[in-house]
Write a structure and sequence with these properties.
Elements lengths: L3 H29 L15 E6 L5 E7 L8 E5 L10 H9 L3 E5 L13 H17 L8 E6 L3 H11 L3 E5 L5 H8 L5 H4 L6 H4 L7 E6 L7 H5 L9 E6 L12 H12 L5
Parallel strand pairs: 3-4, 3-5, 5-6, 6-7, 7-8
Antiparallel strand pairs: 1-2, 2-4
Length: 272
């Protein structure tokens, strides 16, 4: 027979658990998305600032630098949850040094773009960038490489499943947002209360393009084991590249472009 104090303890624990569930439900958007809403700075010389309209009527932005020659591939880049496209000059320099074109899409709710960040919205933002490259940029799918970083890897994978680009690059990806948060907070029913699940594990199965997965072994934001578990799910050719010195944010400074991406593009006849 359960005593009075045991019932009280169980009640207190249950109450705390319910409060935690409610707190996560109410604040999960702030946990997942960290938009800096200050207006975009002017792009570097030779880079165009574009205004894009999404399929649900939001107004977002992009920076676009064309490839050195029409036959050279263009990268469609989707950034992490704390980033901005006007903070990507180092990445821009890496890409253009390879002769490639680059479009960097700004997420809704970030840097003066309209709307509120959400998983569904991010998918629409990614598609708006793709559609512009196809219509206004006059590119073909086999000349576009989709590249996502961190939270951008989920939308990059889903987009690649839907449109079949020439290649997909996943930089510090998660197996799924649901899986990653469930492992970090196992006491909460994340599968039920998480609104933005970002199921990369489901989308990657149907990607019909070569895939490069890159991760830093010192990444404390998204564990390298998350990307390791994605590899056997891919149906097409996939390569995983690990930097022993990189963390979540500095793969580009540890050979991502010069070593991993350059070799990946050469092996798939996508180099410029």
């Amino acid at each position: 027979m359960i005593g009075k104090w045991a019932i009280i303890v169980i009640g207190v624990i249950a109450g705390i658990w319910i409060l935690l569930v409610g707190a996560f439900w109410g604040f999960q958007d702030r946990i997942l998305f960290s938009p800096d809403t200050a207006p975009l700075k002017s792009p570097p010389e030779g880079v165009r600032k574009l205004g894009l309209e999404t399929s649900d009527g939001e107004r977002i932005f992009a920076f676009y630098a064309p490839a050195v020659r029409p036959e050279c591939p263009t990268i469609l880049f989707l950034h992490n949850n704390q980033g901005r496209i006007d903070q990507q000059n180092a990445r821009l320099n890496h890409v253009t040094s390879l002769g490639l074109g680059l479009m960097m899409v700004e997420w809704r709710g970030y840097a003066g773009a309209s709307g509120q960040p959400s998983e569904e919205g991010f998918h629409k933002d990614a598609r708006a960038g793709w559609d512009w490259l196809m219509t206004q940029g006059n590119l073909q799918p086999d000349n576009i490489i989709v590249h996502g970083h961190s939270i951008g890897t989920g939308p990059a994978t889903k987009l690649s499943r839907d449109v079949v680009p020439s290649a997909l690059i996943l930089e510090a990806p998660y197996y799924s947002m649901q899986d990653m948060i469930s492992r970090a907070i196992p006491i909460l029913p994340i599968g039920i209360i998480l609104k933005h699940k970002f199921r990369t594990d489901r989308w990657i199965v149907d990607v019909d393009a070569p895939i490069l997965i890159a991760h830093g072994s010192m990444d404390e934001t998204i564990a390298p084991s998350q990307s390791e578990r994605l590899v056997p799910l891919a149906e097409g050719p996939v390569r995983r590249w690990i930097s022993e010195d990189a963390n979540h944010f500095d793969l580009a400074n540890h050979g991502l472009y010069e070593d991993a991406i350059a070799t990946f593009l050469d092996d798939n006849d996508l180099e410029c």
